[in-house]
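hey
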């Protein structure tokens, strides 16, 4: 091609491109309508909505809570919970509370502790309350973050390692007090008034009474009700009215009644018979117990061949006890659960959480405890579940 032909070809190129683009425009489909971002509300809870706390141990700054419909085995949503959060749900089921920690460099820098309040219907963050940078960076046992019975205050377990309790006024959304509780751990809320008790290292309870603005106005130490050297107890109880049922590492049940002027204690009773003791059956796991309140049935994660240090082992079976008669009424197969909860509705279910599989097995609370469903793929290292 000579220079004249090349110049003619280059001059014609824009016209060819324009024609091609025009033809392409005719063949192009019409643009999609613009998306409108909306907020979807969760299906109303039916008594089987599960809140699963996942500590994601391989990247703990990125914790989360998974929200699951236990009846339909359907994943509903997720709440991000920061570093090693403590979590719970309000007494009326309308709010999710998260006490957590943030660092500007993920794992270092100026520590910031907050209480976050999420709408349980949309999972939206509705409020954030600054609290002292002292809250316990611990796994979220049920007695680490506790609302008052009327939902006015939120009690947060602290550890620096000195122990104390932060009091948050949920009405004014402010931190209002820090209450020292030296040598005592966990928060056991009372059903009436602004009171909580805490388990002390000498086997007693310290009970703190608050006034209407969240300040401590009374402190009273109880008698010793268990021997922490010979029979230590798990700090999260199951509630039946004003009674609290604690189980011990060695298989005893302790009933504590939080009512009146001061706690009352019943004589402990054993979960084990002679054959059980010979096989070294013991409770084990994280949230090792659950209570079905209508029937007064206490469920306990149990494993055989127990020994010193096996108190967090997953369960081989789940044992059911009638608390009125203090008798075992069922032995239920377990999926290696470490945590249990029981729903309280018209068709109640017993849920067992396996951390290694991220699996929840639901059984009907009826004769034989038939399998209802299995929910798989829940999180990375889920440790606790709560039901509403």
């Amino acid at each position: 091609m000579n220079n004249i032909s090349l110049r003619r070809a280059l001059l014609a190129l824009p016209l060819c491109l324009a024609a091609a683009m025009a033809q392409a425009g005719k063949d192009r489909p019409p643009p999609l309508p613009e998306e409108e971002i909306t907020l979807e509300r969760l299906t109303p809870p039916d008594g089987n909505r599960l809140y699963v706390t996942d500590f994601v141990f391989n990247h703990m700054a990125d914790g989360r809570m998974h929200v699951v419909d236990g009846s339909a085995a359907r994943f509903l949503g997720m709440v991000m919970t920061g570093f090693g959060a403590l979590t719970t749900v309000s007494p009326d089921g309308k709010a999710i509370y998260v006490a957590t920690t943030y660092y500007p460099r993920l794992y270092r820098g100026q520590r910031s502790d907050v209480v976050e309040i999420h709408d349980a219907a949309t999972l939206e963050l509705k409020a954030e309350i600054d609290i002292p940078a002292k809250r316990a960076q611990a796994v979220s046992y049920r007695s680490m973050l506790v609302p008052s019975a009327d939902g006015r205050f939120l009690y947060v377990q602290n550890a620096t390692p000195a122990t104390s309790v932060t009091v948050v006024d949920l009405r004014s959304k402010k931190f209002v007090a820090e209450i020292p509780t030296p040598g005592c751990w966990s928060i056991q809320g009372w059903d009436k008034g602004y009171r909580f008790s805490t388990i002390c290292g000498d086997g007693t309870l310290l009970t703190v009474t608050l006034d209407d603005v969240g300040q401590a106005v009374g402190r009273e130490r109880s008698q010793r009700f268990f021997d922490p050297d010979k029979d230590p107890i798990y700090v999260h109880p199951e509630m039946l009215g004003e009674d609290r049922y604690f189980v011990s590492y060695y298989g005893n049940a302790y009933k504590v009644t939080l009512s009146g002027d001061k706690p009352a204690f019943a004589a402990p009773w054993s979960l084990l018979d002679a054959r059980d003791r010979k096989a070294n059956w013991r409770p084990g796991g994280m949230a090792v117990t659950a209570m079905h309140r209508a029937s007064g049935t206490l469920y306990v994660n149990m494993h055989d061949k127990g020994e010193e240090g096996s108190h967090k082992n997953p369960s081989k079976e789940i044992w059911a006890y009638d608390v009125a008669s203090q008798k075992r009424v069922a032995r239920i197969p377990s999926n290696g659960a470490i945590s249990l909860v029981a729903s309280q509705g018209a068709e109640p279910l017993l849920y067992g959480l396996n951390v290694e599989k991220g699996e929840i097995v639901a059984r009907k609370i009826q004769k034989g405890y038939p399998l209802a469903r299995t929910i798989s793929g829940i999180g990375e290292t889920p440790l606790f579940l709560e039901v509403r």
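The chain has a mean pLDDT of 93. Helices lie at 3-27, 274-278.
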